[in-house]
Design a protein that fits this description.
- The structure is a homodimer of 399-residue chains.
- Chain A is α/β, with parallel strands linked by helices and 399 residues long.
- Chain A has two domains: 266 residues, Rossmann fold (3-Layer(aba) Sandwich); 77 residues, 2-Layer Sandwich (formyl-coa transferase, domain 3).
- Chain A is 37% helix and 15% strand.
- Chain A has a six-stranded parallel β-sheet with strand order 5-2-1-6-7-8.
- The two termini of chain A are 33 Å apart.
- The interface between A and B is large, with 141 and 142 residues.
Chain lengths: 399, 399
Amino acid sequence: MAGALEGIRVLDMGRVLAGPSCAALLGDMGAEVIKLEQPGRGDDSRGFAPMKKDKDGNNVSCYYKNFNRSKKGITLDLKTGKEVFLELVKTVDVLVENFRPGTMDKLGLGYEELKKVNPGLIYGCISGFGSTGPYRNRAGYDTMSQAWSGIMSITGWPEDDPVRCGASLCDVIGGLHLTIGILAALRLREKTGRGQFIDISLTDGGVVAEASMVEVYLATGKVPYKNGNRYTSSAPGGGYHTKDGYCVINGSAPKFWAMLVDIIGHPELAEDPRFLTNALRVKNREELDPYVEAWTMSLTTQEVIDTLLPKGFACAPILTIDQVVANEQIGVARNMFPEIDDPEVGPTRFINSAIKMEEGGPEIRCPAPTLGQHNDEIYSTILGYSPEKIQELREKGII
Amino acid sequence: MAGALEGIRVLDMGRVLAGPSCAALLGDMGAEVIKLEQPGRGDDSRGFAPMKKDKDGNNVSCYYKNFNRSKKGITLDLKTGKEVFLELVKTVDVLVENFRPGTMDKLGLGYEELKKVNPGLIYGCISGFGSTGPYRNRAGYDTMSQAWSGIMSITGWPEDDPVRCGASLCDVIGGLHLTIGILAALRLREKTGRGQFIDISLTDGGVVAEASMVEVYLATGKVPYKNGNRYTSSAPGGGYHTKDGYCVINGSAPKFWAMLVDIIGHPELAEDPRFLTNALRVKNREELDPYVEAWTMSLTTQEVIDTLLPKGFACAPILTIDQVVANEQIGVARNMFPEIDDPEVGPTRFINSAIKMEEGGPEIRCPAPTLGQHNDEIYSTILGYSPEKIQELREKGII
């Protein structure tokens, strides 16, 4: 099906995760995405686990393949191929990069230069702290942004060390923020004809993810800290051990608390003065939670879930990744892990976009390119280079 | 400055976080967002902490205010005001809701009905598991989606219970995914004239955030588990105690490892056969990390950072939320917490969007509405109702 971004050409100079994930989503939505890599070397993530073997027994990165599907691939040395690069930039609508700020400027290829050759260019970049401010020159990594943004200070158990979220949430949110910026800039460009510079910081995105936790401090001056799985303002709720594992339950609303006292075999708690209101249950949660956990510990996780879910409780087991992939809802009904027949490594499953639309939405449109796979196609059709010229560029190591 | 979404009208029926955060971002980008709430009651989050006092001493929710800035507010009872609702839907471009799937259908106001009166309507919804599949009727909560999506299985310490990410990442990512879907659908509608249904699941978004962790399983069958702050495939790196706290450091690349042995006062480790390559350092990390931590423990966190940052290391202190807000980069240079003079609670800081654009990008355009604040304005200007008719609707409790 034709994508919503059909007719838009994107030059993806991204590396590893944040930039490439944005460009992959644009490609999934039908944009023509050209991934530009250093000749002979490519995106560092071509060396990142997980690997699968190709038919000759070489390791091929499925990390790279996941974040670079729905793209074509070319090589170009940015130092020796500057003229070629500028010719290419003239033909694209969007450029995505996640170099350390200043890298493109040092190459003489910063936004101010590029907009001279293409005033309609939408230049989107992602970095650890954004391209303004005193930290702008620092390298960006998901874990560092989880630390600097405060996410680690609110994740984990009160008595333990701070811990990072196991998901690469700053990287992923950075890619989503840039995607939104690009779509908004494309819309504006239709009115103005002008492109613009979009500047995303992984750390800013971490702050946005904290949401109400930050607002607590902004409104009250009270600093939120890590609190395990407990809700700070409702009880009972949070994580409980079961006979064979762990689960999360929310039983704090009056309706659910009223049901829960019967389910856990303590109807007398409904009248217990310590637990009459949510505020009292929060205050006395150390005395309350053992009642709940005595019940959950008497059952398997599955039995807890099977008891509570049909009654409308919010509750969940802690799925492991293999269970997520096999899950009838996530893996099957929502098709979150479609299989692609990759020309190098054969049938492999990748992570689908979570944006489910009737028409024009994201789908994996082609497997990730091998290094320079589309050099002939792109340089001949888009820039009109002759086979001889392309061969010359190749021999000189420019592409 | 005019926003990129100027001229687009959005009806926000969202509650609490995921839906309202999407609509607020659309409003920040210049869309006319009309928040529709139940008369006399409003969005549940009007009762959520943090609270500030208004001049009469009443509690007013800054949770609500943060996620409902850049909107106008009206009230409408969806049962008694169905006709009014349909007249309103005819005039809007986008509808956002995050009810439990089926709620709007039960009211006779599902997408299939609404598109009959407005074929161009872009109907965006967010729910715990999406509107398809066997789990579609279950309630959606950030914590439950962190559990079902596998995020909790990869967050925390190997020897501890699984723990949720302290940020509401599934809610926030859900809002960002819907924003992207809406922008893509608006683009497509310009070609086709048709609206469409966009269906976002909080749990699917959690899966997307896991990124390469899921790909590890898909490509190799190996299930990733929680691993604290360690990188699984590089060393030294992760979290280390300091004299007064904790920090994260990445010293695994050859260049940084070579520097680090000198910095920590153990140049002999450069030649140590246990640590010659990254693979060996990963294998022998239990013997390696004590050398690093002996050094970090001899210094304050600030001293560690001041030593490593100028040499180009990726490293970070664990900022607490108050430190994030005061931080010269995040709070100051990036303006992530702008102050709004709120008519009810006075000057208050809110969380800015992380999308920094030259032109037409997000900015907080007005404070959140009081319940029904714009009833007269919206019902008279958009639907052309007379003051008498509006008064009648009010007296009947329809608005």
